[in-house]
UniProtKB/TrEMBL annotation:
It holds the Pfam family F-box. It comes from the Eukaryota. PROSITE patterns: FBOX (PS50181). Residues 24-72 form the F-box domain. InterPro entries: F-box-like_dom_sf, F-box_dom. This is F-box domain-containing protein. Transmembrane segments: none annotated.
Length: 339
């Protein structure tokens, strides 16, 4: 670690504490509170070097907050509880033997992790403890397995009051969630604005459970509050009206968005009937010759200053055709190109 950087940051902290002239002071003679402030003012690389001097500095650095973690993993159920937080050269583990809430809150305060992943059968204890521990933690990606209502309430509490415009959230539903669809739907309707949202459901879920989860209201909320939404649920109860209302958000607002979800063929047929403009003829014909179930997605981008509406059909996760129409000029035909 460059000694000049450390001396500069140390003197700045000491100058804030006193207006008296600064004399040479051994760094290790400083009180813990001042050393914590020194840590907070250092770059991540200098911070790593500084904490390696001795165990005292390691403890101070650990508890002063503002840490950058590559990932944080939480595995939780009634018999097994563990939180593993790692950075470039150091890891921290909390288990049922040392899971002190104050220590955890100090560890993660003001910190950032590229990914926060929570798995297991979330209990009421986890629902109460984890939002406190991660209260000021920012994350680039949140990944949670959904088993019961506690999972949904945990997500709501983790997202509460956070600015997540550049974050990605991934929810994976597993067996048993069908009993709590009402609570989960309410949670989906309340999520704040963020960048990327992914929702998937295990193959063991019945079609009726899936259909009940994703309806017109949930779809419209997700399209409004995300830049990209990927709903990997085989069955939904999205109607042609819900599809049309979501489509209008792309058409009217002129913003860059993307959405992908499954709808039955008859829903697409009814959706296409909303359009009488001849430029949608090719689009309607394409829709009606697809299988009974298909993945419909669309996105809107700006090309050479013009707003482009791109309709895409996806089958087996492979894009088949892409139809583009410059909305500004409103052509009478739809240009077609292969992808």
């Amino acid at each position: 670690m460059p000694s000049s950087a450390l001396v500069k940051n140390t003197k700045e902290v000491m100058q804030e504490e006193s207006t008296e002239p600064i004399t040479e002071t051994l760094l290790l003679d400083l009180p813990n509170e001042m050393l914590a402030r020194v840590f907070s003012s250092l770059t991540l690389e200098d911070r790593k070097s500084f904490r390696s001097v001795n165990d005292r500095l390691k403890r101070i650095e650990r508890n002063c907050g503002g840490r950058h973690f590559t990932d944080i993993g939480v595995e939780w159920n009634t018999s097994y509880k563990i939180i593993v937080a790692g950075d470039a050269d150091m890891g921290f583990i909390f288990n049922k033997n040392n899971m002190d809430i104050d220590s955890m809150r100090e560890m993660f305060k003001g910190g950032y992790t590229e990914e926060l992943e929570i798995t297991g059968d979330i209990t009421a204890e986890a629902e109460n403890l984890l939002p406190i521990a991660f209260n000021t933690l920012k994350f680039g990606r949140l990944s949670i397995n959904m088993f019961r209502p506690n999972s949904g309430r945990l997500i709501s509490r983790l997202l509460d009051g956070k600015e997540l415009k550049n974050a990605a959230i991934e929810l994976r539903f597993r067996s048993g969630f069908g009993k709590f669809v009402k609570e989960v739907k309410q949670m989906l309707r309340e999520i704040p604005h963020f960048d990327i949202f992914r929702l998937s459901s295990g193959k063991e879920q019945s079609g009726s459970e899936q259909e009940e989860l994703i309806d017109d209201d949930v779809l419209l909320h997700l399209v409004k509050h995300t830049t990209s939404s990927y709903i990997d649920v085989e069955a939904t109860s999205i109607t042609s009206r819900g599809l049309y209302d979501a489509f209008k958000l792309f058409w009217v607002n002129g913003v860059d968005k993307e959405a992908s979800f499954n709808v039955p063929r008859e829903t697409i047929d009814h959706f296409c009937n909303h359009f009488v403009d001849e430029r949608f003829t090719a689009l309607r014909e394409m829709f009606r010759h697809k299988d009974s179930e298909a993945t419909f997605s669309w996105s809107e981008t700006r090309v050479a200053g013009e707003i482009q509406m791109c309709f895409v059909f996806m089958r087996s996760r492979k894009v088949k055709r892409c139809y583009q129409a410059p909305l500004a000029t409103r052509p009478s035909t739809v240009k077609r190109r292969s992808v």
